[in-house]
Specification:
Elements: E1 8-11, H1 15-39, H2 41-44, H3 48-78, H4 85-88, H5 95-108, H6 119-147, H7 153-160, H8 180-222, H9 229-232, E2 234-237
Antiparallel strand pairs: 1-2
Helix pairs in contact: 1-3, 3-6, 6-7, 6-8
């Protein structure tokens, strides 16, 4: 008998979840690429106008990233059973037992198959979501304090303006038409956000590497179509998954 004859397909990721995943991948790649150039702008000899242009591109990609993330959060309330919070977040009755059994089975070769996220994946997905949300919130604040972009840019302009009626005269990287004391206060307010944004970026890079590595290892061990499922929406298993209906 051909081994593939015992395999059965199971639907798992709906179209919206798959679209979110790949838009998220592309926007993160774009944000990382542009962000690294911004981070090392001085070493690369980027001019002030060049930095403003790079930050503008970074912010526009960030808007797509944020909208996509917000949509995914909403979808976790209304999507199919494998897209919902219950299937994403760790915890709940029996989670620790399921985690121990999954780890033991993975080590011994007696693999427990999951149609949705396995217990280890839930931990990683939760970490990624926390880091993505942190990046989104701090990034929006920095967009307002750096280049006066929405949603907070106009409020920041009014804060630092010498004349609140002439906020249109305030330009990024220029101290003309700003009150020096209030501008200094704004920069002090900004400082913890840029620190959090930077270090959560480093953590996100590490988490992404671990996430991709875990996917590859799991795919090699389980051969369930884990990677292709993000294109097709379906996994294949030789046995009925633990979380299948």
């Amino acid at each position: 008998m051909n081994p593939t004859d015992t395999l059965k397909e199971y639907p798992v990721w709906d179209r919206t979840t798959r679209w979110f995943h790949w838009i998220n991948v592309l926007t993160i790649m774009g944000l990382i690429g542009v962000g690294l150039v911004i981070l090392y702008a001085k070493e690369l000899g980027v001019s002030t106008d060049g930095k403003i242009w790079l930050k503008t591109i970074h912010v526009y990609i960030g808007y797509v990233f944020c909208l996509n993330l917000v949509w995914r959060i909403i979808w976790a309330f209304v999507g199919n059973q494998y897209a919902r919070w219950k299937a994403i977040l760790p915890g709940g009755k029996g989670f620790l037992t399921a985690l121990r059994e999954y780890k033991a089975g993975f080590r011994s070769g007696n693999i427990q198959y999951y149609q949705g996220h396995n217990p280890m994946a839930k931990l990683m997905i939760t970490l990624l979501l926390v880091l993505l949300i942190t990046q989104a919130i701090t990034g929006l604040v920095l967009a307002g304090t750096d280049i006066y972009f929405p949603p907070f840019g106009q409020t920041i302009k009014q804060w630092v303006a010498e004349d609140a009626k002439q906020t249109d005269l305030i330009k990024p990287y220029s101290k003309e038409n700003v009150n020096e004391d209030r501008y200094a206060q704004m920069r002090a307010f900004r400082k913890p956000f840029i620190t959090i944004h930077l270090y959560s970026f480093y953590l996100l890079l590490i988490a992404i590497i671990l996430h991709v590595g875990a996917i590859v290892v799991t795919e090699v061990r389980e051969r369930s179509g884990l990677i292709s499922a993000m294109f097709t929406g379906r996994k294949v298993f030789p046995n009925k998954p633990v979380d299948a209906d």
